[in-house]
């Protein structure tokens, strides 16, 4: 589902993220063979080759939130759903969200929901899911858990009459074919794989139908320790992520082919996400997670006292004009022609003595 939250038993192993053999700074990043990642797309495009910061892939990780891996000093940078970031702050984990990730478009959704071809479950007949089983990825308060429940609830479905079964993402489609699951939750690249098989699967609706264009944010988060040691490398990292996001949005077909190549799925069947331009973070797409968890999840005590600015900053983004979050992604709809600052901004979230004033 996301690069840092992977249902696999292997323990993380890798380098320390202090420096590469060529003198550059490395960052430990949890790698899954079947997960989409702007870090890996940037690798395929050669963006890390001559950079002063480079990924050191470790893992795969156990199925724990990205921020927990950061707190345990097992990775330096990760990506995961913002609901877990909120929980991590409540628990006192030392990390900061530094770059945005995916948004939603009608034809490039964060998630899509499929049934078996010929199923009576449709967008206008969601009550038909009552008494049946929904297959979703692992993780309480995750996007797969929260969005489907809120959407069904909005459409009059009694959630107490639906069985929600947590499965590894790659196991949900076979379960639908066998009749063990009636509706499944899917992310790219599997969305494209299922769309290519209309004789077997039917797309019923997407996450865009619930949360619109702002949904899906799983920002890149970094440990404060790494950020304090390597602020300039962090700025270069965010710049490369923004450059990669802009390229992927401008080349959806080619980025989907890279998604297939890096995940092992047939390139002609895969789909990719749409990303926030310039990797800039905003308040609105992060704030929606509080409502999501409150509506259908389990908020941790104290989470209501937090706000996006307590977790995320644009201080390391070379496209930013200040450390402040944008109010909304409506302010960030075009690709910026170049960097708009000369160094890291000061931020109360990370103590960096060399930050730009």
UniProtKB/TrEMBL annotation:
The keyword Signal applies. GO terms for cellular component: periplasmic space. It is found in: Periplasm. Keywords: Signal. The keyword Transferase does not apply. It comes from the Bacteria. Pfam families: NMT1. Residues 41-254 form the SsuA/THI5-like domain. Belongs to the bacterial solute-binding protein SsuA/TauA family. This is Putative ABC transporter substrate binding protein. It comes from Gordonia amarae NBRC 15530. The lineage of its organism: Bacteria, Bacillati, Actinomycetota, Actinomycetes, Mycobacteriales.
């Amino acid at each position: 589902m996301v690069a840092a939250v992977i249902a696999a038993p292997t323990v993380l192993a890798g380098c320390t993220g202090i420096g590469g053999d060529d003198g550059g700074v490395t960052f430990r990043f949890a790698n899954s063979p079947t997960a989409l990642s702007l870090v890996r797309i940037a690798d395929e495009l050669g963006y890390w080759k001559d950079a002063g910061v480079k990924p050191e892939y470790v893992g795969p990780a156990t199925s724990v939130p990205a921020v927990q891996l950061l707190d345990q000093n097992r990775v330096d940078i990760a990506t995961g759903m913002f609901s877990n970031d909120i929980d991590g702050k409540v628990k006192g984990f030392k990390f900061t969200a530094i770059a945005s990730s995916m948004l939603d478009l009608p034809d490039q959704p964060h998630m899509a929901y499929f049934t078996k071809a010929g199923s009576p479950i449709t967008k206008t007949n969601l009550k038909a899911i009552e008494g049946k089983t929904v297959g979703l990825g692992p993780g309480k308060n995750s996007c797969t858990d929260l969005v489907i429940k809120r959407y069904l609830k909005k459409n009059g479905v009694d959630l107490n009459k639906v069985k929600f079964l947590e499965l590894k993402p790659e196991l949900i489609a076979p379960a639908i074919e066998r009749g063990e699951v009636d509706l499944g939750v899917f992310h790219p690249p599997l969305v494209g794989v299922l769309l290519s098989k209309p004789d077997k699967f039917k797309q019923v609706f997407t996450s865009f139908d619930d949360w619109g264009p702002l949904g899906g944010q799983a920002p890149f988060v970094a440990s404060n320790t790494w950020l304090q040691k390597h602020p300039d490398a962090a700025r270069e990292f965010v710049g490369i992520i923004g450059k990669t996001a802009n390229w992927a949005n401008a080349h959806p077909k080619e980025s989907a082919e890279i998604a297939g190549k890096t995940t092992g799925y047939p390139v002609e069947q895969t789909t990719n996400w749409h990303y926030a331009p310039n990797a800039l973070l905003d308040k609105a797409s992060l704030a929606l997670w509080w409502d999501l968890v409150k509506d259908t999840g389990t908020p941790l005590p104290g989470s209501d006292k937090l706000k996006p600015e307590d977790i995320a900053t644009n201080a390391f983004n070379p496209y930013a004009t200040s450390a402040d979050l944008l109010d909304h992604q409506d302010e960030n709809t075009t690709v910026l022609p170049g960097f708009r600052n000369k160094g890291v901004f000061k931020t109360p979230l990370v103590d960096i003595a060399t930050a730009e004033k």
